[in-house]
Structures are given as structure tokens and as C-alpha cells.
Design brief:
The protein has 182 residues and is of the alpha+beta class. The protein has five helices and three strands.
Length: 182
């Protein structure tokens, strides 16, 4: 009976540790924690390996051990996937979501009317990209003044050719790029 009680107590402790580890990873992915809880994860994995390596006669205890081990491996796969997405720049810490790839284009014709329509479309796409990323969007006047400032540089680089303004999300930030039409 003492062995059974000690095993049940040990399983309760492991469940508590797993809950704490899950909370620590959630905090890390949310941007609250600065470092990944690697040590705690390795310690819990070691304890679970020791426990699953033992021969357990009681069916209920063996069931709990297998369930705990399975749950840990499921969490570990999930954490590894999120960490891989963070490394690839596809997961933003603090938002808890994976942004969709944002690439939208708006064209600018050489005449004045097309420029205004293109500025409006670029502004709307920039606002939409900022909302997806979770950042504050610039004002319409800021976008217009930016495009006016860049007008000379665009003309130097592309001449009188028509250009497309492309809103692209790089590194979790929406950016405005200019590309010449082919």
C-alpha cells in the first residue's frame, strides 16, 4: 500500500509540474518570459522516462503514467512546432497567433487620378496588414507624404515606367515596397 500511495503522490507531483511547465511556455510564447523553460522541460522529460521505464502492475497507475507521458509528448511537439515557426519568423511573440502571408498590390499610373486611387488602395492594404499584425497603422496623410517624398527616388530608379506599390509583411512588420511593372 505504501508503494501505491508514493506512486500516486509522485504522479500528482508530475501533473503539477506539467501544468507549471505549460504555463511557463504560454508565458514565453506570449512574450512575458524572456527565456524558454528548457531546464524544467528536460527535468520533467527525465522523470517521465524513469517512470515509464518501470514495470507497473496496477492498471490504474499504469494508465495514468501512459496518459501523462502521452500528454507531455503532445505538448512537446506543439512547443517544438511553435519554436520552429518563431525561428522562421512566422509566429509573433505576444500575439499568440500566426499571421497570414500579407502581399497585396496596388498600381500607380502616370496620371494624377491613378495616383490618388493607388494611394487610397495602398493605404487600405497597409491598414489591413497592420491590423493583422497587431500594430498601429499610419495615418492617411503620413502615407501620402511618404509616397510624395519617395516620388523622386522612384522616378530616378524606374524612369517614367508604371510601378506597383506592394504591402509586404516582413519580420512581423508591414512594409511598403515599390516594383516596376513588366
Amino acid at each position: 500500500m505504501d508503494e501505491r500511495r508514493s506512486m500516486l503522490r509522485r504522479l500528482d507531483d508530475l501533473e503539477q509540474e506539467m501544468r507549471k511547465l505549460e504555463i511557463r511556455y504560454d508565458q514565453y510564447f506570449a512574450g512575458v518570459e524572456k527565456r524558454e523553460p528548457v531546464k524544467e522541460r528536460e527535468q520533467l522529460a527525465r522523470k517521465l522516462r524513469q517512470l515509464t521505464g518501470r514495470h507497473v502492475v496496477q492498471t490504474d497507475i499504469r494508465f495514468r503514467v501512459n496518459g501523462l507521458s502521452s500528454r507531455f509528448h503532445t505538448y512537446a511537439n506543439y512547443w517544438d512546432r511553435i519554436l520552429r515557426l518563431m525561428d522562421e519568423g512566422k509566429f509573433m511573440r505576444g500575439s499568440g497567433r500566426i499571421p497570414p502571408p500579407a502581399t497585396a498590390t496596388a498600381s500607380a499610373d502616370g496620371n494624377g487620378d491613378g495616383r490618388e486611387d493607388a494611394t487610397e488602395r495602398v493605404y487600405e492594404q497597409l491598414v489591413e496588414a497592420c491590423e493583422q499584425v497587431g500594430t498601429r497603422a499610419p495615418s492617411r496623410q503620413q502615407v501620402e507624404s511618404l509616397l510624395k517624398k519617395q516620388k523622386e527616388k522612384i522616378r530616378e530608379k524606374f524612369g517614367d515606367r508604371d510601378v506597383d506599390f506592394v504591402v509586404v509583411t516582413e519580420g512581423g512588420k508591414p512594409k511598403l515596397k515599390v516594383r516596376a511593372r513588366k
